[in-house]
Design a protein that fits this description.
single chain; 5 strands
């Protein structure tokens, strides 16, 4: 069989790209809605960094003579409006230990109904990753659509 006659197998790639693009766009949109909900109904407060937990992953940085660096999760403690003390680990990862120190105060936003749900209070943290997902999903979708139109 001539290679040009086997278009069924090639369309699979474009369908997979379309599917991954749509799922990524939906995921990014849901994260934006979730984070915007936290931003509009959440409570902003100052939290103290009480610990830096190693993530277990390391990376080599060329700008520091190839020394091995470890990533850290921030463990914070704060008071809710009701006066309860909450201690929890942020999903935010610090890529350099000097960025934060134990005892530093940072602005966090927490869910009033579930104060264990907390995020670093910054637009970049709340929307950066979801917008990145939307962009990547959009690129994959457009690429998949173009390949599908070409019969690939």
């Amino acid at each position: 069989m001539h290679p040009r006659h086997n278009r069924g197998g090639k369309r699979g790639c474009s369908i997979i790209l379309l599917f991954i693009g749509v799922v990524t766009i939906i995921g990014g949109g849901l994260l934006i809605l979730q984070n915007l909900g936290l931003e509009t109904s959440g409570v902003v407060t100052m939290a103290e960094i009480v610990d830096l937990k190693p993530t277990g992953t390391t990376h080599n940085r060329k700008d520091t003579a190839n020394t091995e660096k470890r990533n850290y999760y921030l463990v914070v403690e704060f008071q809710t409006e009701e006066g309860d003390t909450i201690s929890n680990t942020l999903d935010h990862i610090s890529f350099k230990l000097s960025e934060y120190e134990i005892g530093d105060s940072i602005s966090v936003i927490y869910n009033k109904g579930k104060p264990q749900i907390i995020e670093l209070n910054s637009l970049e943290n709340l929307l950066g990753f979801p917008i990145g997902l939307l962009v990547i999903g959009g690129v994959l979708f457009v690429l998949g659509r173009k390949l599908f139109a070409r019969g690939m």
